Each structure stands twice: as structure tokens, then as C-alpha cells.
Amino acid sequence: MSPLQDNNVPVNTGFDNVDLQGTMPSGDKTHTQYVIEMRGGDTLQVQISVDGAQALAELSPRITVTFYNVSKVIDVPAKMIDPSSKERFIERKLLDQVSGQIHPGQLVALMGPSGCGKTTLLNTLAGRALSGVTGDIWFNNQRYDRSMKRKLAYVLQQDIFFEQLTVKQQLTYTALLRLPNHLSKQDKLAQVEQIIDQLRIRKCANTPIMLISGGEKKRVNIGTELLTNPSVIFLDEPTSGLDSTSAVALMDVLRDLAIQGKTIITSIHQPSSQIFQSFDQLILLADGKTIFMGKPSDALLYFATMGHHSPPQYNPADYVMDLVNQDMTIREQLKDAYLTNKLVGHVKSVSNQVQSQTSTNAHQYLIPEPSGNEPNLTNPDNVNLIPTKHESKWPIGFLPQMMILFKRTFVLTGRRQFTILNFVQALGLAVVSGLCWLRMEFAENTIPDRSSFMFFLMTFWPLQTMMHGLLSFPSERVIIEKERASGSYRLSSYFVAKSLAEAPVKLVLPTLFLIIAYWMANINPNFGIFLAVLAFQLTAVLVAESLGLLLGAALKNLQHAITAATVLLMSLMLVGGFFVRNLPHWLGVWGKWLSFFKYAYNACLQLQFKGGQIYKCIDGSYVASCRNNPNGTFKSHEALEFFDYGISIGFNFLVLFGMFVVFRTLAYLSLRFIKNHSGRS
Ligand SMILES: Nc1ncnc2c1ncn2[C@@H]1O[C@H](COP(=O)(O)OP(=O)(O)OP(=O)(O)O)[C@@H](O)[C@H]1O
């Protein structure tokens, strides 16, 4: 990081409404000062204050991770393994007595063939998916506790973000949400700037994530986790998909972090020779068991003692991977040899039996495993990693969380919703609808067309919004689950923020549509009636969106959710009586209560013919008083005789509103209690 006296770094926040107040603390010349350009051309100088730097440092005590005899067993549906099996589940061991110790400042590689248990071990050490896990895991001399989550960073293999956000927005929202209250907003923004420099992503800081390169995305992923200055960093295959230059650059970043005292463990596939040698320790797994734990430079020497010699000039990492990917017999030999050699290392006195199974000096290439009862597990900073009872579980309170998430959701929904395509669709359809129902006369023969206008209005937008909610929710849910897994915010803050922020944005296009189509079609000239029809249309949209969210949250599989939505919507339309006037009674009874289209439609039908507008009679097909008086007139409400519109306008609104509340609540509960969408252990 360049010091303040060297240069001021001009940056554009790319983040609207940076509304910082107060003056910057002066005098700490050891920190870089960033000049942030705000909207309107003003600039703001940001640097981490002395207090902020101190608070950030306190977030990151040095931590030694020790794991002893860690095993993990899961129950797999028996039919998945053997279709003829009579059992329901078969036990499968994903990890088998894996032990190790990683110190602050160390960069440790976890390698092994695909499916050997690398991700499972990382998940287990990071305190994720702990069911079926046995053995001991210590952070310094304390056992894992959920409240340590914020000291541990987990960089997932997949780079999961809201890709419409710029790099800086992504980091800023995360910093505001995840850095604790006692850091000022200035300090949080300055921390974002520092991370941008540290991860070398300044040049793409204001680019939407969807447009940046794979390597940059990976660094944003890591940067997002580093904002909270964690002590331990777990990374799952951070170099996958990167070219060798980007991979080396990424490893340099990790090395810098290790030098700062972080404890880093990363799984990695086929690293280059340069990257392989740069690790402090290598843990090699096969079928959930350790087959080597030592310095990477010792790996080839170790395997050579068993007669496995690498050809000259061969990348050692490739050789090691080739070896463990060979047939079962060699893997079994390596597993047995490791067990024996680690015993030799422990006991130091070799029995005849042991000696016969192992090469004479192989154990010297291994790093000894922890014994499981080290009395002096290191606690260099002598800090308590588990917060005291009165400390909040969350970095910031419910309301600030909600406000930040509200703003993020508002920005995102605006970007997704206000596309040229969506405007063209809404306005184009409005004009086409207006032309189809153009300037309907106030006459008896327009009664069916007026009814179908309302039907179209109350089905098109709700259907569109529901499908949109249904399709977008699964991808959003993955991001929310990722953010929540690192203890960022409450689910309730997210849900309230989402509900509040999305509603106005989602309602703009249906409103524009109605303004055009309603007046072109000449529905009812009373402006109050127009507003009431609008209110019903928007409420129907919100009910449908809630139903979409509910299905998206409750059904794990998108295909299932789409099928359920299609069947449900068509059924609701049918039982709503739109196509069949004489429904069987038993169907009509529940259909009447479930079909939300029907409430909006019934109310709007009544609204349309409200106000005593004078209509011309034509032939008496729809209005009784016209039957003997084809040249006469009738008042609009007489048209309702033709329809079975049911309950009053107010009651229709109440039922719709009730549906909105029920569907939203069920969506929240589904989100809360139906978990593990990936189905992974
Ligand atoms: N929920 C689960 N149900 C069934 N099998 C599972 C589950 N979770 C993990 N496994 C299996 O456990 C084994 C270890 O998986 P893991 O993802 O840890 O491997 P890995 O070494 O990270 O693989 P890769 O390098 O391909 O990412 C694999 O065989 C995987 O199929």
C-alpha cells in the first residue's frame, strides 16, 4: 500500500449517495489517503483513521487451526448407489481421520484427485455442514463456535455475486453490512479502497461484475471475504479457470496475506511447478484419507522412498496427481504407508513389524500430526475468539442492515426491471391493447369487450411478475445463502428490504401500461375509478409476485417450480370461472377462495360500471331493460346483471391483501426453513 505522502489515489466510488459527514481524522501519515469523486463533481478524502485501523486489527487475531482425527460420514440414499438395494440409506465416509495443524503466516495446499474430500474438509474446518462430523477442531485453544464465523473467511469455488453491481458497489455494500458498528462509515469506505489496492482490481473497480475477467472475478470474490480482515482464510480451488499468469498473481496476493499473519488453506488442482513450490505445507488426500502431509519440496522424496520416482523435468505437482490418480492398489499402498510412517514419526521407536512395512527414512519427510491433546495449543494473542454474551451476533443492527439491503435491492431491481426491452414491451403492449379496445362506445354491445379488457389487465401483469419472481429467485437465493453463511445479516432484514424495495420498482411498468391502455380504451372517465382499478391491478401484481417467491423458495428444483406454477396458475384461472360459467359446486367453492385473479377482476368489473354512466341500448342481449327498448338507454351499473361478480369491492380488496400477507409470510418461512439447495453435504 502506498503511503499518503507518496500519492493521493483518485477514485470514482461508482457508489451513489456517499453521504459522509464530519471531518477526517488527521495526522496518521502511515495510511493511504483516497480521494473519492462523488456525483456532482465533489471529492471526498478517505483514509482509515487510527481508531479504524486499530479496530480492524482487533478483528483479526492470529489463529492456529488444529484438527485431529476429523471424519465425516453421510447417509446416501441406497438406490443411488445400488438400484437393487433393499436398504433406505447407505453410510458413506467422506473423510477418514484427517489431522493437521496450520499456523498463522502459513499458506497450505490441499490436493488430491477429484472427489477425494478437499471441499468437504474445507467445509468442515470452516464450520459449515458439520452434521456427521466427528473428531476435534480447534482455533487456537478454543473449539469451533458459530460466533467465530466472522473471523473465518470462506472463498467458494464459484464466484457468486449480483453481477449487475460494479466491483466497488459489491465491496462497499459488503463492507457496510459486515464491518462492525464501531467502525465509522469513512473507515468502512477506506477499507474498501485498501482491499481494491491489495487485490489489484483498481482498473475494473467501476465495471459491472458481469463484464470483468475470470481472474478479476476471483479476486473480487476473495476481496469480498477479506473486507472483514479475517484471521483464517479457506479457499476452494481459487485458481480454477485462471490462466497461469492470473493464477500466479493470485498466489502472490495470498502470499502477501500470509505474510500479514493470516492462516490460509486452499484446495488446488494441478498447480504449476512455481505455485506448487510456493506453499508452506501440502496435504494430499485420497478417498478421504491423508496420504502425505509435509513440505511440497519433500513430496517427491517421500514417494521416491516407496519406489515411485518422478521423471526428470516433470512438474512435481503433476507427478503427485498422476500417482494418486493411478489404480486403487497404489492408492491403498500410499494410504497404508502414510499410516505407518506417521506412527514411526510419533513413536520414534520402530517395532519390527512397522519396519517391515515402511521404508527406512520416509517419515522424516512428513510433518508430524497433532497428537490431539496438546496442552499448549498456541494462542499467541491470548484473545478470546468467542464473543461475550452481551456482544451482538450481528455486525450491525436490524435497521441499518435493512436500509443497506433496501438500497442494494432497489438499485438491482431498477437495473433488471428498467431495461429498454421491458419498456418497449410495456409501452408496445399498452398501445396494441389500446388499439384493440380503441375508444369503446358506452353502449350495450361493448359489455363483453369491457369485461375481457379487465380480464386481460388482471391476468397479464400478475402472470408476468409471478414468472419473473419465480425465475429470478433461485439465483438470488444462492447469493443470499452464501452471504448469510458468513454471518452478514439477518434473513428478516433481507426479506423486509426486498419486499419494500422491489414493490415500487416492479409496479412502475404496469402503471405505465394502464395509463395508456385505460384511456385509449375509454373504460370509465372518472379519475377516482381509474385510480381504484390501478390499485387493484398493482395489488394483484404483488400477490402474484409473492406466490412466485413462495414457489421459488419452497421448491428446490427450478423445473419443479415452473411446472408447479404453470399447473397452479392455469387451475386458478379455470376454477376462477373465467372460462366455465357452470363449474361443479365442489370446485367452485375452493376456487372462489384461491383464485386471486378473480378478486381483482370482480372488483374491477364493478368499478368499470360504477358511476351511473349512460349507456346506449342495442338489442337487449345483455341488459333486461333494453329488451323492449332497443333505442333507449340504461345506467352502467345495470350491466352488472349479466355478471356473477360476487362480493363487494372492499371485500375483494381485503381478500387480495390477505393473500399478499399469507403468501409473503409463507415465502419467508420457506426461505428460513427449506435449506441446502445445492444438496451438498
Ligand atoms: N451430499 C452428498 N451426497 C453424496 N455424496 C456427496 C455429498 N457431498 C459430497 N459427496 C461426495 O463426497 C466426495 C468428496 O466430495 P468433495 O466435494 O469434498 O471432493 P473434492 O475433492 O472437493 O472434489 P473436486 O476436486 O472434484 O471438487 C465426492 O465423492 C462427492 O461425490
Automatic annotation (TrEMBL):
Q: What family classification does the UniProt entry report for this protein?
A: Belongs to the ABC transporter superfamily. ABCG family. Eye pigment precursor importer (TC 3.A.1.204) subfamily.
Record field: transmembrane? 418-440, 452-473, 494-521, 527-554, 561-580, 649-671
Q: Where is this region: Disordered?
A: 1-26
Q: Which UniProt keywords are present, listed alphabetically?
A: ATP-binding, Membrane, Nucleotide-binding, Transmembrane, Transmembrane helix, Transport
Q: Name one GO cellular component term.
A: plasma membrane
Which named protein is this? ABC transporter domain-containing protein
The organism's taxonomic lineage, starting at the top:
Eukaryota, Metazoa, Spiralia, Gnathifera, Rotifera
Q: How is this protein situated with respect to the membrane? A: Multi-pass membrane protein
- A Pfam entry, by short name: ABC2_membrane
Q: Where in the cell is it found?
A: Membrane
Domain ABC transporter, chain residue ranges per copy: 65-312
Gene3D superfamilies recorded: P-loop containing nucleotide triphosphate hydrolases
Question: Which SMART domains does the record cross-reference, listed alphabetically?
Answer: AAA (SM00382)
What are the recorded GO MF terms, alphabetically? Answer: ABC-type transporter activity; ATP binding; ATP hydrolysis activity
Which residue stretches does the UniProt record annotate as biased composition, category Polar residues?
Answer: 1-15
From which domain of life does this come?
Eukaryota
Q: Which organism is it from?
A: Rotaria magnacalcarata
